[in-house]
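Re: duplicated header lines in exported structure tokens

Our pipeline writes sequence and tokens for each protein into one text file. With two proteins the header for the second block appears twice in some exports. Here is an export where it did not happen, for reference. First protein block:
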Amino acid sequence: MRVVIIGNGVAGQTVAEEIRKSDQDRQIHIFTEESFPFYSRIFLPNFITEKRSLEKLILKKPEWYEKKNIFLHLNSKVIEINSREKEIRFQKHLSNSDDTGIMSYDKLVIATGSKPRRLPFGNPNVKGVFTLRCIVDAEQIKGYIRSQDVKELMILGGGLLGIELGYNLSELGLKIMICEIAPYLLPRQLDSGTAKLLKEYLEHKGLQIICGEKAEKILGEEHVTGVKFESGNTISCQMVLQQMGIIPKTKLAENAGLEVERGIVVNDFMQTSEEDIYAAGDCIQFNGSIWGIIPACLEQAKIAAKSIINIEQDPYQGTFWSTRLKVAGLNLSCFGKLLSTENLSDGKIIIENTDAEKFISKKVLIEEKKLQGGIIMGPSNSISGSDRFFLQNLGLEIDEEQLKKELFLKR
């Protein structure tokens, strides 16, 4: 039996690994448009600043695939899925559009991931506007900074990657400005109070943080010269990075006639509207939600793999939100439901311990005596172990006194 996987990111790679753990004989083929085997996207900012080499960025070398008897097709773009004939058509060696091939499958996994959200600002041909999603993007960003002697850089988007990218690039001696359209940073993860502390910390480290502003136009004829905002404000810069979230890559699935809304619609076993086609990762939609976080990719991929090889399992019920950020000695962990002190309903309480001078914020949400969410932020030595404790107890009934003891524990 042959399993074909489209995409070699976290979801695609995990599906292949999980199948191979339980089935040594099944034929597995992975197709990726990239020139590199599986690598860590979260360390791309470190690659730009040369704190991590290309060799260390790549997590699975070609020899690993050979040893596991997994066929990895690099520089190979799947351009069509024929669900009736159960085959894919792919373009080999992307520079040659006539070099195509066809491969049949018994089971197909779509793990095409997502693409960066880009907004049409000003002159579409102006040089100096980038997004960071892959190694090629990182190489282009690194090259442009050097060749154009960039001094001021604007990041549009105050999410996790935007913040990590901004701090890393500031170590190159650049003036970094991060603009977030929401009233505060990380609106999907943080409450306003913790976000205010994070903003103060980043400003303390030399970054300029702009919240509540919407970019209207990127200025410049040949090269970027600045950004104009809807408020009328204009800020000078020589480079713009758009890090404004992601859009699921669904075109292949749409063209194949699969059910697609915002993402590829799957059931609780990662099966699409076609019986032998599964999907996992950033490209999917489950119960109306797009997840777009690594823990969800891992969980969905494992369920897809078990479904393919008929291992009994519990159905997918969604993934608890869990994200982490490390910036210059400050650790931030967010998990479970979003915390907000506004409109707390009956049965919900928030317990917190905040020390603004030390940039420490520990908050947890209790709902019907169960731990349902939390935010842990502070210097590494002040919160070590706290995030593990709360993640282990997430969704479980827990004693309030035990929680308070952990929140106020001096480390």
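Second protein block, exported in the same file:
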Amino acid sequence: MVRTLLRAEGHTTLGVLDGETALKTVRSSPVDLLILDINMPGLDGLNLLLNIRSSGNMTPVIFLTAKTEPSHQRLGLDLGGDDYVTKPFDPALLAARVRSLLRRSRLTPRPSVLTVEDLVIDVDARTVTAAGSPVTLSPLEFELLVALANNAGKAVRRQDLLRSVWGTQGSAKSLTEHVRRLRGKLDAAGSTGLISTINGVGYKLG
């Protein structure tokens, strides 16, 4: 019903059936707006949003859910949701809220290039240069670097990086190994010492 409504409004839509697939889709294919249910199989809507926001992705999010309790509404908005619509819903009102969020988001476009000292990350092209030299990264290394760059100069907790990059599939050992590889590639390209280990917390870029 929702996809039919949005298509009638002229939008292109993509539907997925579970939170893990939604997270992979958001990472691989930038979208203009997300409509999430809290009761999603696997990774629920709240944890999905937490993963999305912790990576620095500020794509507008509307919760459309049967969870009507004020506590759920507050949590959804506090985690970074932009709107919260409960079922049953008025289709015309949902369409109006989608239009409103899209208008606002287009007034504040997301930066597609992140720069930290002599490191340049083109998020859309998925390219990285360090001290003027191109750096070849694996998909996970790239996502890890973007998560750190979106919080440049700040310590990012290990658990936040795991949620942002791996979802529910990561491990502390995998994170440590990917940071080691990423640090080695940046150092080899000439951007030495950019990634710092913050004992008891996580890592910092810049």
